[in-house]
Amino acid sequence: MTTAFVLGGGGKWGAVEVGMIRALDEAAIKPDVILGTSIGAFNGGVIADYPGSEGVERLTGFWEEVTGADLFQTGLLDRALRVATLKPALHETSELRKLLEHAIHPETQIDDLNVPFQCVAASIEATTDHWFDSGPLVDAVLASSAVPGLFPPVEIDGEHFYDGGLVDSVPLGRAIHLGADIIYILQVGRMESPLRPPQRLHEAALISFEIARRHRFATAMRDLPDDVEVHVLPTGSPVAWDDRSQLRWKDTGGIEERITSAYRATVDYLESRAN
Predict the structure, then answer these.
(1) Cα–Cα distance, 170 to 39 (Å, whole number)
(2) Is 165 exposed, middle or buried (0-12, 13-18, 19+ CB in 10 A)?
(3) Which of 50, 85, 104, 106 is the most interior residue, by most CB within 10 Å?
């Protein structure tokens, strides 16, 4: 049996994945392959490099360090100037790289990780998904995490990449393609929040965005092979699709609570499955 951990995107909400990983580790559930998108690429890359409790503690320390912190140095005036001068993003790529290198050594290669790992980004030139399965880990995670508008596209070998959530927010299909037959989905809570028809003008845009984010995962679940077992782990604190706090990307409050909530919910889920 081949076990895959699939870690979805979701920015600061990705803290919940740390609680899920801790619960999986305590239950002695180990991945044979790890796949990630955006913040899930970061969390997954760290675990692939440091499997088990060491990786859990490393991730926990990182998320505790950024709790309540100003993640990026660009101030309001600087961001306003970037808008006024028609820059393609509010922040520089160097700011995101500096943040990632708090937990990932800049020389780490995907090929040398202790657990096979891949992450996805959206290729501008190819207009499709691009899977990184070799080369520098930080560069790959950087490309997978380049949210349009917040960061400029990341250039690697002459090709430009945006956030992997644009093409495969929760890459279940990739895990099936690679032959995994037991798959644990570590998602940030949006999958637990059902959609409904819009009642206000702004909701039409939000719902359209959610459909675009979720459709590939929903399709993979609908067409799931009979011999593949999928576990969508709970967060304990679902993120409503219309929660406007998602727009406050620099607000890192409540991280510890999210980690703890996801840990407890996942422990309960795993125990219920074992009984």
Answers:
(1) 11
(2) buried
(3) 104
Considering the entire predicted model, what is its pTM? 0.91
CA distance 10 to 150: 14
Distance from C-alpha of 212 to C-alpha of 116, rounded to nearest angstrom? 28
Q: What is the pLDDT of residue 74?
A: 54
Dump pLDDT digits (tens) for 141-169. 999 999 998 899 999 999 999 999 999 99
* Other CB atoms within 10 Å distance of the CB of residue 125: 11
- Number of other CB atoms surrounding residue 260 within 10 Å: 17
> Mean per-residue pLDDT for 19-44?
97
Question: Shortest CA distance to 17 belongs to which of 149, 187, 158?
Answer: 187
Task: Go through 235-247 and write b for each residue having 16 or more CB atoms within 10 A of its CB, e for each that does not.
Answer: bbbbbebbeeebe
Distances from the Cα of 170 to the Cαs of 37, 51, 215, 224, in angstroms?
A: 7, 21, 10, 14
| Cβ contacts of 19 within 8 Å, gap of 6 or more | 236, 258, 259, 260, 261, 262, 263, 264, 265, 266
- Supply the DSSP symbol for 134: S
What kind and span of H or E run contains 96? helix 93-100
* Burial class, 175, CB count within 10 angstroms (exposed 0-12 / middle 13-18 / buried 19+): buried
Q: What is the pLDDT of residues 257-275, one digit of tens each?
A: 999 999 999 999 999 988 7
Q: Strands (DSSP E) along 72-163, which ranges?
A: 117-123, 128-132, 154-156, 159-162
**Which residue, among 167, 169, 90, has the nearest Cα to 127 in the 3D structure?**
167
3-state secondary structure at position 74: coil
The two tokens of residue 16 are: 């919940």
Q: What are phi and psi of 231, to 5 degrees?
A: -120, 115
